[in-house]
Design a protein that fits this description.
141 residues; alpha+beta; Nuclear Transport Factor 2, Chain: A; 6-stranded mixed β-sheet; 5 helices; globular
């Protein structure tokens, strides 16, 4: 896991994705479940690289149990739209198959990221559960 985040995100080493992940890898929790390494590169990796000028992920904890790896992480990224660094906390679980990433489960503070990018109102979650935040007019009824 540490190698994945260091090489793929911190070093922007696109070749590491093919080296470290199976072609059939599945990714849950980032957007809809992404099936396949090529789809992950197309639907997640490239859009993230296009939106952020810098991404750095720091491993805080890593626990290995059988074929699973669990980690607590901090990501610092700079959105091209604001050019201001944003720090985001997250957790990731990975299943390894024959030494390669076969499946991952990600939970990141995407709400905090969107608030920091001014794409959501500040304190959206506390406001939503207090009843202070109203549905957006374009939300389905």
């Amino acid at each position: 896991m540490a190698q994945w985040f260091r090489r793929v995100w911190n070093e922007a080493d696109l070749s590491a994705i093919e080296e470290l992940a199976t072609p059939e890898m599945r990714s849950h929790g980032l957007v809809n479940t992404i099936e396949g390494r090529d789809a992950w590169v197309r639907d997640f990796y490239h859009p993230m690289r296009a939106s952020f000028s810098r991404i750095k992920v720091e491993m805080l904890d890593e626990v290995i149990s059988g074929d699973k790896i669990f980690g607590r992480l901090t990501a610092t990224q700079i959105p091209k739209a604001t050019d201001q660094p944003i720090v985001m906390q997250g957790m990731c679980g990975m299943r390894v198959e024959n030494g390669k990433l076969a499946e991952s489960w990600d939970t990141w503070d995407f709400l905090g990221l969107l608030e920091s990018m001014k794409l959501m109102p500040p304190n959206s979650f506390p406001r939503a559960i207090s009843g202070d935040l109203k549905p957006h007019p374009s939300a389905p009824k």
